[in-house]
Amino acid sequence: MSAVIDNHAGHDAHDDHGHHPTGLMRWVTTTNHKDIGTLYLWFSFVMFLVGGVMALTIRAELFTPGIQIVRPEFFNQMTTYHGLIMVFGAIMPAFVGFANWQIPMMIGAPDMAFPRMNNWSFWLLPPAAIMLMSSFLMPGGAAGVGWTMYAPLTSQMGPGMDTTIFAVHILGMSSIMGSINIITTILNMRAPGMTLMKMPMFVWTWLITAYLLIAVMPVLAGAVTMTLTDRHFGTTFFNAAGGGDPVLYQHIFWFFGHPEVYVIAIPAFGVISQVIPAFSRKPLFGYASMVYATASIAILSFIVWAHHMYTVGMPVAGQLYFMYATMLIAVPTGVKVFNWVATMWKGSLSFETPMLFALGFLFLFTLGGFTGLVLSMTPVDVQVHDTYYVVAHFHYVMVAGALFSAFAGVYFWFPKWTGKMYDETLGKWHFWLSLIFFNMTFFVQHFLGLAGMPRRIPDYHPQFTEFNQISSIGALGFGLAQLLFLYILLKAIRSGEKSPEKPWDGADTLDWTHLPTPAPYHTFENPPVVK
Amino acid sequence: MTKKFGGWGGALLLALQTGVANAAWQLNMTPGVTKPSQVVYDLHNLMTWICVIIFIGVFGVMFYSVFAHRKSQGHKAANFHENTTVEVIWTVVPFLILIVMAWPATKALLSVRDTSSPDMTIKVTGHQWKWGYDYIKGEGEGISFLSQLATPQEQIYGTAAKGENYLLETDNHVVVPIGKKIRVLTTANDVIHAWYVPALAVKQDAIPGFVRDTWFKAEKEGVYRGQCAELCGKDHGFMPIVVEVVSAEKYTAWVAGKKKEMAAAADDPNKKWELAEMKARGEKVYAAQCVACHQANGQGIKGTFPGLDGSKLVQGPAAGHIDIVLNGKQGTSMAAFGKQLSDTDIAAVITYERNAWGNKTGTVVQPADVKAARK
Average pLDDT, whole number, for chain B? Predict the structure, then answer.
């Protein structure tokens, strides 16, 4: 806080260079929201590549029937850490990175409310990631239990399980601190005149997400801590022999796990809600109803968790309740989709890369939403639960949903952050390659699941060969397309053309209307007045 | 690659048109041979078509907008937003559609969940990595066997051609009579497994320490195959389920044969065995039960599964060795085989381990020793 006030007192003009250490120490000691946002984004990209290599290992093994490349126990480790890294290392930090960069600029604040805690939130991540990856070096290797870490399989794992548990603890702490920071910033540091109902949608989605995170991360920490004490200290929370119940773990995990899905999806909705109006040159159709729909989704997300557990043997009444509650989520989600489409209606549309990714999101996320609706029906779910149908479903939501939205966000805000333009042609290539290869990878998995191929198996009956081969080739293509993304970013940073002050004529948030491009190191030392 | 794609695309179209005669291009659920499987199949089709129609409606509007309201074609943006009527409609209409969808789903769920008044009851126990079956009520009561993967390792590791039922064949089929309501009780011995046979529309988690139930009533004779559907460790992908539905007469014959087989296999618990015959029998038990982790050469897998060749425990006093095989080791994958194998088989496998590879203890563990250790 003091640094901000010092700057404010000492410099009248915008200070492009700021007074900060240079080189490595700039990044280690930084309390600047923009630097920290950059750190989050690069961290998440590195983890995205690590998790991607794991995904490719899985797809390579599944290219043909038989065991060719990795042993079954290592295959299980790949599926486990692919999931953990993508969820906690790649997608979540990417959106926190957006929050850091954008929230202060969008609400007219000079920085985040707790800049030092902000630094700490980020710098917890690399040690957590190293600890997570160190599991592979432990005796017995990493834990092959799936990202859901179901008991009592976790009791059979070596020390790699413990390092994973501690890594999850640290990641959780980082998320909670980040959330406290975001909530405090949004509630206390808005520019004069910016009422809650005038905030950009992206800010609203993050306010809601941060509350979700504070509510559920401690629940996950509790679940993995109980696993830890079951493993080492003789407790029997999840062991029937001592009066516990393995299914209890699943209830606790999914009480975290379902809201977690929306922790990932809701900020993605926020990005899309900025991009679609900007490229339609028309305001968001139903701003208020979007806010209410987002809040409704967040609240509903707490009361549907056991739809992940239809096969554990719940009473019929329980299954009916969770089925109805889950179906209800379709209503606010539908409202959001209708609003986006209505925003485009009679707009003046143009299709630069951010808009392409936003449309890709809209189309494919909705497809994933529909398979979710099919899965909500208990009798159908029982048949396809733990098959590739579910794998296809959540990758439509997580990859074509969250990840495409993150790409849209990066291309959209890149000029504001760096003052340079990315190569539009290459950006479009990135979109079309991602779109085609994504569908090639995951659409066919619906068929595999319907035909009965279980998930998390390293080998399969030859009847599944053809679709698996299509999927594996698609995965390779999707992976390579992301290297193109890296090239586009590096090229733009090194030698990109200078961006115009406002490259997107429909963008109307404070960062575009009140700040120069690129945004200087310190912004809004004097808050703007919003009318 | 383009050419290959063309081939695939063509095959895909063909598969769609021919109603998927070829299992390799199966696009939809297995229609199945039980009433619930038909109910589930129809429900899934209905829901998918409703979704497809809505999808086409919504994205028809979006794509119309994408083509008609382009800036490049000089379309000027309107500036309308917020319309309470429209917003109420698009909240209420989906809600009504959901009610329409919930009705058949509820009916289907209630019809498939009734496990009362079965003709037969079979208890299914998940073990890492095989299934145990106990016929506990109805014709065949008392039959009990383990069932595990029958696909040879050579096929999995690519040194032999893959057989017709690759990974989906077991050494012991679960045989049931046609047209009888079979209640299936599931439980597990170590971690959570799930008993999943698509054609019967049955998937039920098997949870250690708890008993859950499900049921099926097959209406067509045949062999139906499934797999474990809950990640249960290293060989999760290698514990198939084979259910054979036969006529009532054939079933009666199978029961008689199985009982005779069980009686013949029962060993005299007081027999004194020689080292050579015990070792020979033990080698077979080892190949079936132990080889997945401890490996054929007794070396185990470094860091994950301890080797037995040269192991202190194996070369030490027999009592400790018997104890770990009988009771397993908490917190590891080492199962308690006392619940799965007979005294003679346990004695045989221990004798084999103590005299195989570099282990030369010369001890013969007798069934009586194991029986004594059980107490």
Answer: 87
Residue-wise pLDDT tens digits, A194-225: 999 999 999 999 999 999 999 999 999 999 99
Closest in A245, A287, A345 to B65, CB measured: A345
Residues 6+ apart with CB under 8 A from A404: A357, A358, A360, A361, A364, A365, A434
- Considering chain B, what percentage of its residues have pLDDT values greater than 70? 93
Look at residue A5 and tell me whether its pLDDT is greater than 70: no
* Proportion of chain A above pLDDT 90, given as a percent: 92
**Helix boundaries (H) for A233-306:** 246-280, 287-300
Q: Between chains, do A338 and B236 touch, taking CB under 8 Å as contact?
A: no
Helix axes A246-280, A92-107, angle to 10 degrees: 50
Neighbour tally for A2: CB within 10 Å: 9
User: Among the residues of chain B, which ranges form H helices?
Assistant: 2-17, 35-68, 84-112, 153-156, 248-265, 275-289, 291-294, 312-315, 318-327, 343-355, 367-374
On chain A, the residues whose CB falls within 8 A of the CB of B25 are 447, 466-467
Q: What is the pLDDT of residue B3?
A: 41
What is the rounded CA–CA span in Å between residue B340 and residue B135? 15
Rg of chain A over all Cα atoms, to the nearest angstrom: 23
Annotated active-site positions of A, please? 82, 111, 147, 174-175, 258, 260, 262, 273, 307-308, 333, 336, 455
Residue A228 structure tokens: 């830890």
User: Given a cut of 70, is residue B32 above it in pLDDT?
Assistant: yes
Q: Are A159 and A138 in contact (CB under 8 A)?
A: yes
Identify the bridge partners of residue B224 per DSSP, sorted by sequence position: B243
**Global ipTM:** 0.89
Question: Considering only CB atoms, which chain B residues are within 8 Å of A289?
Answer: 87, 91
Residue A18 pLDDT: 57
Res. B192 pLDDT band, cuts 50 70 90: very high
Residue A48: partners with Cβ closer than 8 Å, 6 or more residues away: A86, A89, A90, A94, A482
